[in-house]
Write a structure and sequence with these properties.
Layout: E1 2-4, H1 7-17, E2 24-29, H2 35-47, E3 50-55, H3 75-84, E4 89-91, H4 95-98, H5 117-121, H6 125-140, E5 144-148, H7 152-164, E6 170-174, H8 194-199, H9 201-215, H10 221-233, E7 238-246, E8 262-269, E9 272-279
Parallel strand pairs: 1-4, 2-3, 2-5, 3-4, 5-6
Antiparallel strand pairs: 7-8, 8-9
Helix pairs in contact: 6-7, 9-10
The protein binds pantoate.
């Protein structure tokens, strides 16, 4: 595995690696890798001949009161894990390398889709995500890019950017990888104390409860959301930011639920904000 720090070097090595029509599969991350990221790498290995993983904690997608400074970082561990999983090129640029002009003047925005769900509470977040993903796609020029469905709204927005801007990349999105007890894997889980880690499980229990009500024949969104809220009602220490049942393409709230619709939650466990989601048709899967 080759570690690459600059855009020019990455472009050079990939131009060579692409010779003979070899295809590039790309996994963008912010590092502090866990099994969820590594499954994306496995998928990238299946899709492409060359696997590029990026590690870049993107300042543009953090709000002023968010956790940019404390976001967990361990480059040596990440490099070992990436190497062991078969990454060919690990792209880990500095902030000045990605944003040599400081805050970019030209950015990618997706009003309406960005203002829903997480975007409602994290103004500017998805503009930061789409802008850096666009830049990374321009640098890596991947044939495939692999994302995790835990960041459901991110996947919806990236797919829409690729469609609307005619980008030549195929987006693949993999199911959320969970701990054996159901907690969605996230780099931010490292912030949780043992007690908070236990309480965080109610997020999974809540969305599972909602999805089960649907599986048992209920299609009223209000009734499904009530089942989710009932789980949180028994957990006063968790502060729910939103619980929504939405159409997976438009992110519009639905009133009558179908199997493709997505139950999405964001909640604070202590100071840690966690998100999770479930496609109703996947209930019991
Ligand atoms: O999902 C993430 O880790 C980030 O939002 C991404 C896609 C790497 C962009 O910074």
């Amino acid at each position: 595995m080759q570690i690459v720090r600059t855009r020019d070097e990455l472009r050079d090595v990939l131009n060579g690696a692409r010779a003979g029509g070899r295809r590039v599969a790309f996994v963008p991350t912010m590092g502090y890798l866990h099994e969820g990221h590594l499954r994306l790498v496995d998928r990238a290995r299946q899709l492409g001949d060359i696997v590029v993983l990026s590690i870049f904690v993107n300042p543009l997608q953090f709000g002023p009161s968010e956790d940019l400074a404390s976001y967990p970082r361990d480059f040596d561990r990440d490099a070992r894990l990436a190497h062991a999983r078969g990454v060919d090129f690990l792209f880990a640029p500095a902030v000045e390398e990605m944003y040599p002009n400081g805050r970019p003047l030209v950015t990618v925005t997706a009003p309406t889709l960005s203002d829903r769900l997480c975007g409602k509470y994290r103004p500017g977040h998805f503009e930061g995500v789409l802008t850096v993903v666009n830049k990374l796609f321009n640098i890596v020029r991947p044939d495939f890019a692999v994302f995790g469905r835990k960041d459901f709204q991110q996947v919806v927005l990236v797919r829409r950017m690729v469609e609307d801007l005619d980008m030549q990349v195929i987006i693949d999105a993999l199911p959320t990888v969970r701990e054996p007890d159901g907690l969605a894997m996230s780099s931010r889980n490292t912030y949780l104390s043992p007690d908070e880690r236990q309480r965080a499980l109610s997020i999974y229990r809540a969305i599972t409860a909602g999805a089960r009500v649907f599986r048992d024949g209920e299609t009223s969104a209000a009734a499904i959301l009530d089942a989710v809220r009932a789980v949180f009602a028994a957990e006063p220490d968790i502060v729910v930011q939103y619980i929504e049942l939405v159409n997976p393409r438009t992110l519009d709230p639905v009133t009558t639920a179908g199997p493709e619709d997505v139950l999405a939650v964001a909640a604070f466990v202590g100071r840690t904000r966690l998100i999770d989601n479930m496609t109703l048709g996947d209930a019991g899967a």
